[in-house]
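User: Please predict the structure of the protein below. I'd like the answer in C-alpha coordinate form so I can feed it into my own downstream comparison script.

Assistant: Understood. Taking the following sequence of 396 residues as input:
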Amino acid sequence: MASRSTLAFLAIFLLGVLVAIAFSKTYFNPSILSGLTTLFLAPPIVSLLIGAHFKRGKVVFLSFLLFVFQLFLLFGGFWHLNIEQSQRAIALMTPVGFLILGLMEERGIFGKIVVLRFVATIALSAIAYWIGTNPAFIDALNSPFLGENLPIKPISEIAFVLYVAGILLLSILSLLESKQVEKSLPWVLLVAGFPVLSPEFSFIWHLGAAGIIFTFALSQDAYKMAYIDSLTGIPSRRAMDEYFEHLSPPFTIAMADIDHFKKFNDTYGHDVGDDVLRKIAQTLKSIDGGGKVFRYGGEEFAVVFAGKEAVVCKPFLEDVKEIIQKQGFIIRGKKRTPEKIKEIAGTKVTLTISVGACDDSWGDETQSIIKKADELLYSAKKAGRNCVKVAPYKKN
Protein backbone atom coordinates (compact mmCIF):
# COMPACT_ATOMS: atom_id res chain seq x y z
CA MET A 1 0.00 0.00 0.00
CA ALA A 2 1.38 3.41 -0.98
CA SER A 3 2.61 5.66 1.83
CA ARG A 4 1.06 9.05 2.48
CA SER A 5 4.22 10.83 1.33
CA THR A 6 4.16 8.93 -1.98
CA LEU A 7 0.51 9.77 -2.56
CA ALA A 8 1.16 13.40 -1.69
CA PHE A 9 4.10 13.47 -4.11
CA LEU A 10 1.97 12.04 -6.91
CA ALA A 11 -0.75 14.58 -6.15
CA ILE A 12 1.75 17.46 -6.43
CA PHE A 13 3.14 15.93 -9.62
CA LEU A 14 -0.29 15.68 -11.24
CA LEU A 15 -1.16 19.20 -10.10
CA GLY A 16 2.06 20.52 -11.63
CA VAL A 17 1.32 18.77 -14.92
CA LEU A 18 -2.25 20.06 -15.06
CA VAL A 19 -1.23 23.63 -14.26
CA ALA A 20 1.56 23.58 -16.82
CA ILE A 21 -0.69 22.11 -19.53
CA ALA A 22 -3.52 24.51 -18.75
CA PHE A 23 -1.33 27.60 -18.97
CA SER A 24 0.54 26.26 -22.00
CA LYS A 25 -2.64 26.58 -24.02
CA THR A 26 -3.99 29.89 -25.23
CA TYR A 27 -7.10 29.87 -23.02
CA PHE A 28 -6.13 33.00 -21.10
CA ASN A 29 -5.76 36.72 -21.73
CA PRO A 30 -2.23 37.35 -23.10
CA SER A 31 -1.54 40.12 -20.56
CA ILE A 32 -2.44 37.76 -17.71
CA LEU A 33 -0.29 35.02 -19.23
CA SER A 34 2.67 37.40 -19.46
CA GLY A 35 2.59 38.09 -15.72
CA LEU A 36 2.05 34.45 -14.82
CA THR A 37 4.90 33.38 -17.09
CA THR A 38 7.28 35.64 -15.18
CA LEU A 39 6.04 34.12 -11.92
CA PHE A 40 6.94 30.67 -13.22
CA LEU A 41 10.59 31.70 -13.17
CA ALA A 42 10.39 31.48 -9.37
CA PRO A 43 10.04 27.68 -8.75
CA PRO A 44 13.48 26.72 -10.18
CA ILE A 45 15.08 29.53 -8.16
CA VAL A 46 13.31 28.36 -4.99
CA SER A 47 14.32 24.73 -5.54
CA LEU A 48 17.90 25.89 -6.24
CA LEU A 49 18.08 27.82 -2.95
CA ILE A 50 16.51 25.01 -0.91
CA GLY A 51 18.76 22.48 -2.62
CA ALA A 52 21.80 24.59 -1.69
CA HIS A 53 20.61 24.75 1.93
CA PHE A 54 20.38 20.95 2.09
CA LYS A 55 23.60 20.54 0.05
CA ARG A 56 21.94 18.66 -2.82
CA GLY A 57 24.17 19.26 -5.81
CA LYS A 58 21.90 17.57 -8.33
CA VAL A 59 18.96 19.78 -7.43
CA VAL A 60 21.08 22.95 -7.42
CA PHE A 61 22.52 22.51 -10.89
CA LEU A 62 19.45 20.96 -12.53
CA SER A 63 17.33 23.83 -11.15
CA PHE A 64 19.89 26.30 -12.48
CA LEU A 65 19.71 24.63 -15.90
CA LEU A 66 15.90 24.82 -15.87
CA PHE A 67 16.12 28.52 -15.00
CA VAL A 68 18.62 29.26 -17.80
CA PHE A 69 16.38 27.50 -20.32
CA GLN A 70 13.44 29.61 -19.12
CA LEU A 71 15.51 32.78 -19.66
CA PHE A 72 16.34 31.65 -23.21
CA LEU A 73 12.63 31.40 -23.96
CA LEU A 74 11.46 34.49 -22.11
CA PHE A 75 14.23 36.86 -23.17
CA GLY A 76 15.43 35.07 -26.29
CA GLY A 77 15.19 38.21 -28.41
CA PHE A 78 17.85 39.86 -26.28
CA TRP A 79 20.25 37.05 -27.20
CA HIS A 80 19.06 36.92 -30.83
CA LEU A 81 17.26 33.64 -30.25
CA ASN A 82 14.24 32.56 -32.25
CA ILE A 83 11.52 31.13 -29.96
CA GLU A 84 10.80 28.15 -32.19
CA GLN A 85 14.49 27.34 -32.54
CA SER A 86 14.98 27.78 -28.79
CA GLN A 87 12.14 25.35 -28.05
CA ARG A 88 13.76 22.71 -30.24
CA ALA A 89 17.18 23.29 -28.68
CA ILE A 90 15.75 22.99 -25.17
CA ALA A 91 13.74 19.92 -26.19
CA LEU A 92 17.03 18.29 -27.14
CA MET A 93 19.18 19.47 -24.22
CA THR A 94 16.71 18.95 -21.34
CA PRO A 95 16.89 15.12 -21.36
CA VAL A 96 20.64 15.29 -22.07
CA GLY A 97 21.11 17.60 -19.09
CA PHE A 98 19.10 15.35 -16.78
CA LEU A 99 21.07 12.30 -17.85
CA ILE A 100 24.47 13.97 -17.40
CA LEU A 101 23.77 15.84 -14.16
CA GLY A 102 21.32 13.30 -12.74
CA LEU A 103 23.65 10.33 -13.15
CA MET A 104 26.54 12.04 -11.37
CA GLU A 105 27.09 10.79 -7.83
CA GLU A 106 25.61 13.03 -5.14
CA ARG A 107 28.52 14.57 -3.23
CA GLY A 108 26.95 17.79 -1.92
CA ILE A 109 27.77 21.26 -3.21
CA PHE A 110 31.47 21.35 -2.36
CA GLY A 111 34.50 19.54 -3.70
CA LYS A 112 35.68 18.42 -7.14
CA ILE A 113 32.28 17.09 -8.18
CA VAL A 114 30.86 20.62 -7.93
CA VAL A 115 33.42 21.93 -10.40
CA LEU A 116 32.51 19.10 -12.77
CA ARG A 117 28.79 19.82 -12.38
CA PHE A 118 29.34 23.54 -12.88
CA VAL A 119 31.35 22.98 -16.06
CA ALA A 120 28.71 20.52 -17.33
CA THR A 121 25.88 22.98 -16.62
CA ILE A 122 27.63 25.85 -18.40
CA ALA A 123 28.48 23.56 -21.32
CA LEU A 124 24.87 22.35 -21.60
CA SER A 125 23.60 25.94 -21.54
CA ALA A 126 26.17 27.01 -24.15
CA ILE A 127 25.34 24.08 -26.44
CA ALA A 128 21.61 24.84 -26.13
CA TYR A 129 22.33 28.47 -27.06
CA TRP A 130 24.50 27.43 -30.00
CA ILE A 131 21.88 25.02 -31.29
CA GLY A 132 19.22 27.73 -30.93
CA THR A 133 21.24 30.11 -33.11
CA ASN A 134 22.02 27.58 -35.84
CA PRO A 135 18.86 26.81 -37.85
CA ALA A 136 20.73 24.54 -40.26
CA PHE A 137 21.87 22.29 -37.41
CA ILE A 138 18.34 22.18 -35.99
CA ASP A 139 16.89 21.29 -39.38
CA ALA A 140 19.42 18.48 -39.71
CA LEU A 141 18.50 17.14 -36.27
CA ASN A 142 14.82 17.30 -37.06
CA SER A 143 15.05 14.96 -40.01
CA PRO A 144 12.25 12.42 -39.37
CA PHE A 145 13.35 8.82 -38.85
CA LEU A 146 10.58 7.24 -36.72
CA GLY A 147 8.13 6.86 -39.59
CA GLU A 148 4.79 8.48 -40.40
CA ASN A 149 2.75 6.13 -38.19
CA LEU A 150 3.91 7.77 -34.96
CA PRO A 151 0.70 8.65 -33.01
CA ILE A 152 2.17 11.98 -31.86
CA LYS A 153 3.98 14.78 -33.66
CA PRO A 154 6.94 15.73 -31.47
CA ILE A 155 8.77 18.98 -32.14
CA SER A 156 11.92 16.88 -32.64
CA GLU A 157 12.03 13.13 -33.10
CA ILE A 158 15.59 12.78 -31.78
CA ALA A 159 14.60 14.87 -28.73
CA PHE A 160 11.59 12.58 -28.25
CA VAL A 161 13.83 9.49 -28.28
CA LEU A 162 16.23 11.07 -25.76
CA TYR A 163 13.26 12.16 -23.62
CA VAL A 164 11.77 8.66 -23.44
CA ALA A 165 15.18 7.02 -22.93
CA GLY A 166 16.04 9.48 -20.15
CA ILE A 167 12.79 8.84 -18.30
CA LEU A 168 13.20 5.06 -18.56
CA LEU A 169 16.84 5.09 -17.40
CA LEU A 170 16.21 7.47 -14.49
CA SER A 171 13.13 5.44 -13.50
CA ILE A 172 15.17 2.24 -13.30
CA LEU A 173 17.91 3.93 -11.27
CA SER A 174 15.37 5.57 -8.95
CA LEU A 175 14.27 2.11 -7.80
CA LEU A 176 17.67 1.73 -6.14
CA GLU A 177 17.46 5.06 -4.31
CA SER A 178 15.91 5.88 -0.94
CA LYS A 179 15.96 9.68 -1.08
CA GLN A 180 12.87 11.36 -2.50
CA VAL A 181 14.95 13.77 -4.59
CA GLU A 182 16.60 10.88 -6.44
CA LYS A 183 13.23 9.19 -6.92
CA SER A 184 11.78 12.43 -8.29
CA LEU A 185 14.25 12.80 -11.19
CA PRO A 186 12.24 10.80 -13.79
CA TRP A 187 9.08 12.68 -12.76
CA VAL A 188 10.80 16.04 -13.02
CA LEU A 189 12.13 15.16 -16.47
CA LEU A 190 8.68 13.93 -17.50
CA VAL A 191 7.18 17.33 -16.64
CA ALA A 192 10.09 19.50 -17.81
CA GLY A 193 10.32 17.80 -21.20
CA PHE A 194 6.59 17.31 -21.78
CA PRO A 195 6.45 19.97 -24.55
CA VAL A 196 8.68 17.66 -26.63
CA LEU A 197 5.46 15.80 -27.42
CA SER A 198 3.78 18.75 -29.11
CA PRO A 199 4.55 22.37 -30.06
CA GLU A 200 1.22 23.34 -28.43
CA PHE A 201 2.82 23.23 -24.98
CA SER A 202 5.12 25.87 -23.54
CA PHE A 203 8.48 24.93 -22.05
CA ILE A 204 8.44 27.93 -19.70
CA TRP A 205 5.44 26.60 -17.79
CA HIS A 206 6.69 23.03 -17.66
CA LEU A 207 10.20 23.98 -16.59
CA GLY A 208 8.60 25.98 -13.77
CA ALA A 209 6.36 23.06 -12.79
CA ALA A 210 9.47 20.85 -12.67
CA GLY A 211 10.94 23.27 -10.13
CA ILE A 212 7.81 22.87 -7.98
CA ILE A 213 8.22 19.09 -7.97
CA PHE A 214 11.88 19.46 -6.99
CA THR A 215 10.87 21.69 -4.09
CA PHE A 216 8.29 19.20 -2.86
CA ALA A 217 10.77 16.32 -3.12
CA LEU A 218 13.25 18.31 -1.03
CA SER A 219 10.57 18.94 1.59
CA GLN A 220 9.87 15.20 1.74
CA ASP A 221 13.54 14.45 2.33
CA ALA A 222 13.71 17.19 4.97
CA TYR A 223 10.72 15.62 6.74
CA LYS A 224 12.38 12.20 6.72
CA MET A 225 15.61 13.61 8.13
CA ALA A 226 13.71 15.30 10.94
CA TYR A 227 11.06 12.72 11.81
CA ILE A 228 12.08 9.29 10.47
CA ASP A 229 14.77 7.15 12.10
CA SER A 230 17.33 6.47 9.37
CA LEU A 231 18.28 3.00 10.64
CA THR A 232 14.88 1.41 11.20
CA GLY A 233 12.68 3.51 8.90
CA ILE A 234 10.07 4.13 11.62
CA PRO A 235 9.15 7.51 13.19
CA SER A 236 11.76 8.95 15.54
CA ARG A 237 11.50 10.34 19.06
CA ARG A 238 11.00 13.84 17.66
CA ALA A 239 8.02 12.57 15.67
CA MET A 240 6.64 11.02 18.87
CA ASP A 241 6.96 14.30 20.77
CA GLU A 242 5.00 16.07 18.03
CA TYR A 243 2.44 13.26 17.95
CA PHE A 244 1.84 13.77 21.68
CA GLU A 245 0.83 17.40 21.03
CA HIS A 246 -2.28 16.18 19.20
CA LEU A 247 -3.02 13.15 21.40
CA SER A 248 -6.24 13.18 23.44
CA PRO A 249 -7.21 10.86 26.35
CA PRO A 250 -7.53 7.99 26.72
CA PHE A 251 -4.20 6.67 25.48
CA THR A 252 -1.53 4.18 26.47
CA ILE A 253 2.24 4.39 26.13
CA ALA A 254 4.21 1.14 26.07
CA MET A 255 8.00 1.06 26.29
CA ALA A 256 9.66 -2.01 24.74
CA ASP A 257 13.33 -2.95 25.09
CA ILE A 258 15.30 -5.74 23.39
CA ASP A 259 16.60 -8.17 26.00
CA HIS A 260 20.38 -8.63 26.30
CA PHE A 261 20.95 -6.38 23.28
CA LYS A 262 24.33 -5.08 24.49
CA LYS A 263 25.61 -8.62 24.91
CA PHE A 264 24.21 -9.51 21.48
CA ASN A 265 25.98 -6.50 19.96
CA ASP A 266 29.28 -7.37 21.64
CA THR A 267 29.04 -10.99 20.49
CA TYR A 268 27.89 -10.61 16.90
CA GLY A 269 28.96 -7.07 15.98
CA HIS A 270 27.17 -3.80 15.31
CA ASP A 271 26.17 -4.69 11.74
CA VAL A 272 24.20 -7.67 12.99
CA GLY A 273 22.87 -5.54 15.85
CA ASP A 274 21.56 -3.01 13.34
CA ASP A 275 19.78 -5.81 11.47
CA VAL A 276 18.15 -6.87 14.74
CA LEU A 277 16.92 -3.33 15.39
CA ARG A 278 15.42 -3.16 11.90
CA LYS A 279 13.71 -6.54 12.31
CA ILE A 280 12.23 -5.67 15.72
CA ALA A 281 11.02 -2.31 14.41
CA GLN A 282 9.24 -3.91 11.45
CA THR A 283 7.66 -6.59 13.66
CA LEU A 284 6.42 -4.00 16.16
CA LYS A 285 4.86 -2.05 13.27
CA SER A 286 2.56 -5.01 12.64
CA ILE A 287 1.10 -4.86 16.16
CA ASP A 288 -2.68 -5.07 16.41
CA GLY A 289 -4.85 -2.53 18.20
CA GLY A 290 -3.74 0.49 16.19
CA GLY A 291 -0.46 0.96 18.05
CA LYS A 292 1.88 3.54 16.51
CA VAL A 293 5.56 2.61 16.86
CA PHE A 294 8.47 5.01 17.43
CA ARG A 295 12.17 4.46 18.00
CA TYR A 296 12.77 6.00 21.40
CA GLY A 297 16.54 5.54 21.46
CA GLY A 298 19.14 2.76 21.37
CA GLU A 299 17.34 -0.58 21.60
CA GLU A 300 14.21 0.95 23.13
CA PHE A 301 10.95 1.50 21.26
CA ALA A 302 7.72 3.25 22.19
CA VAL A 303 4.26 2.04 21.14
CA VAL A 304 1.41 4.52 21.53
CA PHE A 305 -2.22 3.37 21.52
CA ALA A 306 -4.67 6.24 21.00
CA GLY A 307 -8.14 5.78 22.49
CA LYS A 308 -7.24 2.73 24.60
CA GLU A 309 -6.45 1.99 28.24
CA ALA A 310 -3.43 -0.09 29.22
CA VAL A 311 -5.37 -3.20 30.25
CA VAL A 312 -6.99 -3.26 26.80
CA CYS A 313 -3.59 -3.02 25.10
CA LYS A 314 -1.91 -5.84 27.04
CA PRO A 315 -3.11 -8.67 24.72
CA PHE A 316 -1.72 -6.82 21.69
CA LEU A 317 1.64 -6.40 23.41
CA GLU A 318 1.68 -10.04 24.51
CA ASP A 319 0.96 -11.17 20.95
CA VAL A 320 3.77 -9.14 19.37
CA LYS A 321 6.17 -10.31 22.11
CA GLU A 322 5.34 -13.93 21.25
CA ILE A 323 5.77 -13.27 17.52
CA ILE A 324 9.26 -11.82 18.07
CA GLN A 325 10.28 -14.82 20.20
CA LYS A 326 8.93 -17.38 17.72
CA GLN A 327 10.42 -15.69 14.66
CA GLY A 328 13.92 -15.50 16.07
CA PHE A 329 16.72 -14.07 13.97
CA ILE A 330 19.03 -15.67 11.43
CA ILE A 331 22.59 -14.33 11.58
CA ARG A 332 23.88 -13.49 8.13
CA GLY A 333 27.58 -13.28 7.30
CA LYS A 334 28.80 -9.91 6.04
CA LYS A 335 32.09 -8.69 4.62
CA ARG A 336 32.73 -6.53 7.68
CA THR A 337 31.67 -9.26 10.14
CA PRO A 338 34.49 -10.86 12.18
CA GLU A 339 35.65 -14.29 11.01
CA LYS A 340 34.20 -16.06 14.05
CA ILE A 341 30.80 -14.61 13.15
CA LYS A 342 31.10 -15.78 9.54
CA GLU A 343 31.55 -19.30 10.87
CA ILE A 344 28.10 -19.23 12.48
CA ALA A 345 26.37 -17.35 9.65
CA GLY A 346 22.96 -18.89 9.09
CA THR A 347 22.53 -19.76 12.76
CA LYS A 348 19.11 -18.90 14.19
CA VAL A 349 19.11 -17.14 17.54
CA THR A 350 16.20 -16.26 19.82
CA LEU A 351 15.19 -12.65 20.36
CA THR A 352 12.94 -11.45 23.16
CA ILE A 353 11.63 -8.11 24.38
CA SER A 354 10.45 -6.78 27.71
CA VAL A 355 7.56 -4.31 27.83
CA GLY A 356 6.13 -1.85 30.32
CA ALA A 357 2.84 -0.05 29.61
CA CYS A 358 0.93 2.74 31.32
CA ASP A 359 -2.12 4.81 30.37
CA ASP A 360 -3.08 8.44 30.99
CA SER A 361 -4.97 7.58 34.19
CA TRP A 362 -1.56 7.93 35.90
CA GLY A 363 -1.04 11.55 34.92
CA ASP A 364 -1.76 14.37 32.52
CA GLU A 365 1.83 14.76 31.29
CA THR A 366 3.13 12.30 28.71
CA GLN A 367 6.61 12.39 30.28
CA SER A 368 5.26 11.18 33.62
CA ILE A 369 3.43 8.35 31.83
CA ILE A 370 6.63 7.41 29.97
CA LYS A 371 8.49 7.42 33.28
CA LYS A 372 5.92 5.04 34.80
CA ALA A 373 6.05 2.80 31.70
CA ASP A 374 9.86 2.72 32.02
CA GLU A 375 9.56 1.67 35.66
CA LEU A 376 7.30 -1.18 34.60
CA LEU A 377 9.75 -2.08 31.83
CA TYR A 378 12.58 -2.47 34.35
CA SER A 379 10.21 -4.43 36.55
CA ALA A 380 9.71 -6.80 33.60
CA LYS A 381 13.49 -7.09 33.25
CA LYS A 382 13.86 -7.99 36.92
CA ALA A 383 11.06 -10.55 36.60
CA GLY A 384 13.14 -12.55 34.13
CA ARG A 385 12.65 -10.56 30.90
CA ASN A 386 10.47 -11.60 27.94
CA CYS A 387 7.31 -10.42 29.65
CA VAL A 388 4.80 -7.55 29.68
CA LYS A 389 4.04 -5.45 32.75
CA VAL A 390 0.98 -3.18 32.64
CA ALA A 391 -0.06 -0.53 35.13
CA PRO A 392 -3.63 -1.04 36.38
CA TYR A 393 -6.16 1.68 35.69
CA LYS A 394 -5.73 4.33 38.37
CA LYS A 395 -9.03 5.74 39.58
CA ASN A 396 -9.06 9.42 40.49
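That's the full C-alpha coordinate string. The chain has two domains: 4-227, 237-390.
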